[in-house]
Amino acid sequence: MSRGVRAARLLAITLMVIGGLAYSGWVLQFFLPAGELSPIHAHVAELTADGQPYQHLFRISDVVAGVAFIAMVPLLLRLVPAQMWPRLSVAAIGVFGVKMLIGAAFTLDCAPSADQACRQRLLAGDFSVDHSIHLVVSTVTVVLYLVSTTCAGRWWPPGVWRNSARIALALVLTSTAGMIVLEVAAEGRFVGVLVRLQLVTMVVLLFVGALYLLSAARLRVP
């Protein structure tokens, strides 16, 4: 293994850790007075909504995550096999990083889970272009989750690596179905639990990916 490949692997793992921790910035909600937002009912995106007390802090966290995900793309392209599924995995990470930056730039007008008037206004179609862009970006998030977990399950080695990806895919599918049901039948109550389950699932999978890179490096060292 060349010195350049080792450096790329180390830097990629470092960026994965930074990106994963930044993407977990919503955990700060449990330590900061985040207004009326409930981790049980509120979407994580509402933490960056206009008028929220720590809007800028959570937006910065999203930007750091986005930059880390984008920066790791050229490194991963050097490390993964030159095949379709590994390359799709890397592409999904890059697109996800771009999505994070767009989501941080265009935020929600208000937090519907904490403000009934806001929810009624949004249901009536009274929202800005920024709000619309953020909603589109949020939809893309689930698609990228599904693509990432599917791709990892196709090319990671059998055993714990591949099973981790398949479990993550099952959790994403189940939680997404649950969120749709809660939005339709319960006005979004308890949807925050499922949103955070997805976030934890994807961060854990990212760290599993970092461990896989580290494990592969050890296996190839003479």
Question: Globular, elongated, flat, extended or rod-shaped: what is the shape?
Answer: globular
SSE arrangement, N to C: HHHHHHH
Oligomer category: single chain
Average pLDDT for all residues: 92
User: What does the main sheet amount to?
Assistant: none
Fold and architecture overview:
Helix content is 72%, strand content 0%. The chain is built from seven helices and no strands. The chain has helices at residues 3-23, 55-79, 84-105, 116-123, 129-155, 160-185, 191-220. Helix 1 runs antiparallel to helix 2, helix 2 packs antiparallel against helix 3 and helix 5 (129-155) packs antiparallel against helix 6 (160-185). It is globular, with a radius of gyration of 18 Å.
Features:
222 residues, mainly alpha, 7 helices
In short:
The protein is mainly alpha-helical. The protein contains 7 helices and no strands.
